[in-house]
């Protein structure tokens, strides 16, 4: 039996806005006594929920499934994101893709399988459009440089046989109410979610089959037969474990010096009044991704179950290898986001941000996931490389299929990857990465 003390528990800066604006539900109890389970999933984000749902489809009904989440569901990064489920590669510079179409087509196919899986969950658990909608995606430019990014990307889409439409400045105004954007590019395959509502609805939909525990961080892992997971108030004995904790897989002692921990930040306005909505104009619900990858993501949501009409704005990325973001990053994000908001929505002068927050992503230098069987009957479904709503769903499905089936069509494509590569030593890594990101953010100019 090997013993691993968990070195760090998740700390997410600021409130979980998307979770705060929906009606609170009863939630789930925490582990308060010793229990046993055939399968334990650690982590209740995209990856953990997808693993839980796929296990529930694959296992006979007498095999028990438990999910342990350190915090409340929807309060971690899974419920803190901008809610874009993206099927196409994110980077808009088509030079990156030259000669690499096969790889991209495989990724797109896998991404769409993940979005279909999320859509079928949304349908099965009765989620309204405000929580999951197959909206497609619009990437928009505010500068000539941004337009060049869109045009370069469109060439790559043509090479891959993907349909798209350009949107004029007037059309962008009609969608967003803002004259900030001068060109857009729309594709059909993506989806938009209310991330915290989606996570909670999935858990509620699965509660008859999966036993969920919130506020139950795993603080020690003893691998053996059975494995024993220690939480502050009880132990869980498990035959099989799926670790779905994204970057915190490192806190379990796995993948040392191989994972990059990036934080990104967001702000959400207070509810807009009827007169402010009229001054804004545009459509009721929309989302815009920036033409420059270091630019600003913006969403407008309409009133869903009392949550209000609001704008959400995201930018800034910082590398924090300690897995915690300092207060200075939150202050930088606030200044940047107020500036970006003012540039886009001059008609909403005086509208304050009600929530400001940040959250963790996990990347690897070679963009590979931290995936596979780590020890006997312990699997990792971690390191989503940014696009975690889709990649997390995918790795959760794949971990469940690997653990139960051993092989599947999805695994044949998904397993075509190497391990995350080794990182350069500190302090060069953090200094270099943060300086590069600052430089790229500065280069993004008005796109920010
Ligand atoms: C502001 C922001 C905007 C973003 N926008 C997008 C976007 O538009 N589209 C997109 O695809 N991605 C986006 N992301 C990234 C996305 O949110 C993540 O990649 C995704 O949440 C990863 O999913 P996951 O399930 O792998 O990990 P997580 O969502 O991080 O879930 C892991 C869970 O494990 C739990 N955990 C950790 N340690 C323990 C422990 N010891 N015991 C028990 N539980 C533990 C954590 O509390 C957490 O809930 C964004 C992120 C942020 C912060």
From TrEMBL:
Keywords: Oxidoreductase. GO terms for cellular component: cytoplasm. Residues 38-402 form the FAD dependent oxidoreductase domain. The keyword Transferase does not apply. InterPro entries: FAD-dep_OxRdtase, FAD/NAD-bd_sf. Its EC number is 1.4.3.-. The keyword Oxidoreductase applies. It holds the Pfam family DAO. It is an enzyme of class 1 (oxidoreductase). Transmembrane segments: none annotated. GO terms for molecular function: oxidoreductase activity. PANTHER family: FAD DEPENDENT OXIDOREDUCTASE DOMAIN-CONTAINING PROTEIN, SARCOSINE DEHYDROGENASE-RELATED. This is Gamma-glutamylputrescine oxidoreductase. The lineage of its organism: Bacteria, Pseudomonadati, Pseudomonadota, Gammaproteobacteria, Oceanospirillales.
């Amino acid at each position: 039996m090997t013993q691993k003390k968990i070195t760090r528990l998740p700390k997410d800066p600021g409130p979980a806005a998307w979770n705060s604006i929906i009606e609170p539900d009863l939630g789930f109890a925490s582990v308060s006594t010793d229990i046993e389970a055939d399968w334990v999933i650690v982590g209740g984000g995209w990856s953990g929920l997808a693993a839980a749902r796929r296990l529930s489809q694959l296992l006979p009904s007498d095999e028990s499934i438990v999910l342990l989440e350190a915090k409340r569901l929807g309060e971690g990064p899974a419920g803190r994101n901008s809610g874009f489920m993206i099927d196409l590669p994110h980077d808009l510079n088509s030079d990156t893709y030259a000669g690499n179409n096969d790889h991209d087509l495989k990724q797109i196919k896998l991404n769409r399988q993940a979005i279909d899986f999320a859509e079928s969950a949304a349908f099965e658990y009765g989620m309204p459009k405000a929580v999951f909608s197959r909206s497609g995606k619009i990437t928009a430019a505010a500068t000539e440089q941004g337009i060049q990014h869109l045009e370069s990307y469109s060439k790559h889409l043509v090479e891959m046989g993907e349909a798209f439409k350009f949107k004029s400045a007037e059309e962008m105004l009609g969608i967003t109410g803002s004259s900030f954007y001068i060109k857009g590019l729309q594709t059909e395959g993506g989806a938009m979610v209310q991330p915290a509502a989606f996570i909670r609805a999935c858990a509620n939909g699965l509660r008859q089959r999966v036993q969920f525990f919130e506020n139950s961080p795993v603080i020690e892992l003893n691998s053996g037969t059975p494995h024993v997971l220690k939480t502050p108030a009880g132990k869980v004995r498990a035959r099989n474990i799926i670790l779905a904790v994204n970057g915190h897989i490192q806190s379990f002692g796995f993948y040392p010096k191989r994972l990059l921990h990036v934080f990104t930040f967001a702000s959400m306005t207070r509810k807009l009044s009827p007169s402010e909505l009229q001054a804004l104009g545009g459509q009721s619900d929309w989302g815009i991704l920036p033409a420059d990858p270091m630019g600003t993501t913006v969403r407008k949501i309409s009133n869903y179950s009392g949550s209000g009409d609001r704008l959400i704005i995201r930018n800034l990325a910082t590398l924090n290898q300690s897995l915690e973001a300092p207060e200075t990053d939150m202050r930088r994000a606030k200044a940047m986001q107020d500036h970006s908001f003012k540039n886009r929505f001059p008609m909403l002068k005086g509208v304050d941000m009600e929530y400001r927050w940040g959250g963790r992503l996990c990347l690897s230098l070679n963009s590979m996931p931290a995936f596979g069987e780590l020890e006997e009957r312990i699997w990792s479904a971690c390191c989503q490389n940014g696009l975690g709503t889709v990649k997390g769903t995918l790795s959760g499905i794949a971990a469940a299929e690997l653990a139960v089936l051993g092989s599947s069509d999805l695994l044949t494509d998904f397993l075509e990857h190497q391990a995350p590569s080794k990182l350069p030593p500190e302090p060069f890594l953090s200094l270099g990465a943060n300086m590069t990101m600052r430089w790229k953010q500065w280069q993004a100019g008005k796109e920010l």
